[in-house]
Every structure is written in C-alpha cells, then in structure tokens.
Amino acid sequence: MHIPPYPVIDLFAGCGGLGEGFSAVTCGRNDNTPPPFCVGLSIDKDRWACRTLRLRHFFREFPAGQAPEAYYEYLRGRIDEVQLYGGFPDEAERSQRTVQCITLSPEHHGTVRRLIADQLGTARKWVLIGGPPCQAYSVAGRARMKNMPGFASDVRHLLYREYLQILADHRPPVFVMENVKGLTSATLEGQSMIARIMSDLMDPQAALKRQAARSAPGYRLHALASGESQLFNEIPEAHDFVVRAEQHGVPQTRHRVFILGIRRDLQVRPGTLARRNPPTVGDVIGDLPRIRSGLTGSSDTPASWRTAIGALADQDLSDAVGSREIMQQLEAGAAGRRSLSERNADAYEHREVSHDALRFIMSDSRLKHIDGHESRAHMASDLRRYAYVAGFAKVHGKSPKLRDLPKALLPAHGNIPKDGIPSQFEDRFKVQIADRPASTVTAHIAKDGHYYIHYDPVQCRSLTVREAARLQTFPDNFKFEGPRTEQYRQIGNAVPPYLASQIGEIVGEVLDAIGRKG
C-alpha cells in the first residue's frame, strides 16, 4: 500500500534544523516507500536563512542518494546558484515555492493562510513545527534587555501568538513548539510566560477570542523527555518540557523547551525520547583536517602566525599555578605548528562510524569535499590566550576560568579589572574539551570565538562553521548560505537535526496511530 508522506509546515524555520530532522525520519518504512515526512512549507523572515532553506529544499527534491552531481559541484564552489538551479528548473521552482521569506505578523495572516492551505491540499494528517524567536525569553536576553525602554511591550514576547494563529486557522492534529529553557522562568507583567503560553496552546481559539472557541477541540500538551509516567489528561509541569539534548545522543549540552500538542479529539498517547549517550567533541570534529587560525592586525602568513603565538614564551606567566607544565605542552606542539600553513581545508574522506549521531552527520558517501572548514582570524593577543587555555585544558582536562590565567594574559577590558574578576566573566575563554560533549552552541558564536576554542593547542583557533555545524548534528552535505557571520548565526539558532529526527519518530508514530484509530 502506498503511504504518502505527512506534510510538515515549519514556522520561524531559521535554517531548518527541525525540518531537516523530520525529513530524515524513517519510522520503519522500507526503501520502496517514501519517508514519512515532507516539509511542504518553511517560513522565515531572514533572507540568508531562506537561501539556506531553499538550497536544502532543492536537495530534498531528489530521492535519497540521488542528488545531481551539480549539487556537489556547487558545494565546492565550481558553479554558482544560477547554474545549479538553471540545470533543474522544475525542482528549483518547487524549492522556491516551498520556502517563503515572510515576517509572521498580522498584515500577512491572509497570505500565510493561503500558502499553508495550498500546500496541505486535502491532507488531514500533518504536523506544525517551529520555534518563535527567543531573545525576550532567554536568560541572557532578559539580563541584557530588562532595563531598556519598552522591554515589557517588546513584540518578541508575544510572537508565539503567530503560532497560535496557524493552530486556530488550520487545526493540525499535531504540533511541536520549541523555545529556550529561559522560557520556564520568564515573566511578563508579573505572569509566568510558560504558563500563559501553555494555556493559550491548549485552546488557541479562546486565546485569540474567536467565536468558534466552544466548538474547537483544543490541544492536550505532552512532555517529550519526561521520566515519569503521566496520566492521559494530566498537564505536565513547566520543567517537564525541558529536553536535555546530551541525554539523547547530541554532542552538546543544549537544554531547550519542546512542547508536543495533540488535538483533544484524537485519543493517542505519544512516546517519549529514549536515552542515548552522546559522542564527544573529539569524536565529532577530530577527523577534520588540521588548519591554523588567521591573524589580524599584521601580515597573515604562517610565519607571522607562529611568531605571534611564540611570543607567549617571552611573557611573565609565573603568577599562574601550573604555567610551566602548560608551556611545556605548547613547546611540544611547536613542531606541529611548523607543519600548518593553510587556514582552510576541504579534503573529505567518508568514514564508517558506530554512533548514530555520527552516522547522521557523515551519511553521504558521495561527498568528497567538505564545506565551511575555514578558520577565523584573531588578534595576536587572543591567539596567545587561545594557545594557553587550550594547553591548560590538555593538562587539566577542563577549561580554565579567568582566575586561572596569568595576569599578563588577562584581556584589557573595562569589565575585567586586574585585581578582581567578576564572576559573570569567568568563562570568557572557553575550550571545548575533546572527551566531553560541547557546551551550548548559540548564535553568539557569530560575534567571536572566545567561547568556542578548539581543544588542539597546535591549531590555536576557534571552531569553524563546519565544526559548529557538526556539533549541532547538521549533515556534512548541508550548506549554509551567506557571509560566515550569518552562517554561524543560523547554526547557533537551530534545533539539532539529530534530536529533531527523534522527535519526528514520535510524531510519525502518533500520526500513524491516528490512522489506525480512524
């Protein structure tokens, strides 16, 4: 029996981490049937994210493993967008139609309603996914913005109501909404934001004050990672909605809120996410070619780069405990630095791996060159700090705090006095430890690399776009469009696709069960 894929509508899609994960779900279907999900529409307001989405929609126009060779030529930079899309006009047209660069707002309600209706057609079994922008909910965002004029009336507090609008207009049988963990503690005008959002999600019609509120069934909310068995009609506590990605095989300590909603007239109970051990940072990025960092402020040559780092030996580091052992580590790596000359490398060798997350990332045996593995440039003073903290991590098995640095290496920053280091800046330079999962990859990686320092003191650099993408579990054949800063930002804002695929498995089973129950 032919089983058509379930349509996915992706709101606030960003570069498409959720959609990528749902597209990778199999739900036990064999090679002769299509995958259970097809992303029919992705909506975001960011032009670079939409270009990334369009390229990925184009890639998925072809059956698994059958993307044209032109796609790989595009990844290598041998052809441009015009040549790629011009060679496959039908697939290019569909990918353009299914990605819409639109700001979700009241003036676009009619347009969005028509777009979704056109994509759904007669489909009754489908899923709405997405995560409204989270700056106003995140702990860091609230700390930064709380004293700004108009913070309480910031429209980003209520962007989730655009999600409600789609729920009310189209009544999907299932939805998945994602947001930052800070949502569980955020308040607006004295009211808990997550309590307000949960109440509105359970009855979108009433929340939007629609006349049809009494006849609409509303939604039952479910926690995906709850360790406790819940009664069918029990409402989970706010903290139950927090999913810890590292507990589900993602090589990153990323904690986010995921709310699964199932329409109340559908008597289906979903499963929860299984526990999986994550691979380590070294497992995920250790096979990528070694490259050197760049150098700003002077001639960027391999020799000047080595000289800048070597100047570390001329500084007085004696006030830091263990500095001699750290310097011995760095001196041992000097020969390795002499062998490094390039800031980028695209050589790629497909390898067989045992961990599911690694197979998810390195799934394309046709890939011969890697995209996005190019280092950023840093000031000479930061290169010396990177070398020292990476050496510290290698010696001590942990990233140092600022208090562990010699005074000579403390940055000349107004918020970091030499005689006392404020606690909020203690992790100013953070090494990603080789034998552990990474810390959370956030959009801040676009601004500087200080929180994302490679564990190898020889390379003396921050993470590349491809390394950040791997820690987020994006497949190696996934290309991010735009300037490098925009690529980092897209990656940091995304849901890890490997985690999304596990959520998609649960949603697929729910939709299959709806069919069995009629």
What does this protein look like?
The structure is a single chain. With 518 residues, the protein is α/β, with parallel strands linked by helices. It has helices spanning 17-23, 47-60, 69-75, 81-86, 89-97, 109-120, 139-145, 160-170, 193-202, 204-207, 281-285, 302-310, 323-332, 334-338, 356-361, 380-396, 465-471, 484-493, 497-516, and strands spanning 6-11, 37-44, 99-101, 127-130, 174-180, 187-188, 191-192, 219-223, 242-244, 255-263, 294-295, 377-378.
Report the principal-axis shape.
globular
- End-to-end distance: 17 Å
Helix fraction by DSSP (H/I, runs of at least 4): 25-40%
Strand content: 5-15%
Number of beta strands = 12
Largest sheet: 8 strands, mixed
Q: Nearest-angstrom radius of gyration?
A: 24 Å
pLDDT < 50 stretches: none
Alpha-beta classification: alpha/beta
Number of helices, counting only DSSP H or I runs of 4 residues or more: 19
The mean pLDDT is 90
Please tag this protein with its features.
12 strands, 518 residues, globular, two-stranded antiparallel ribbon
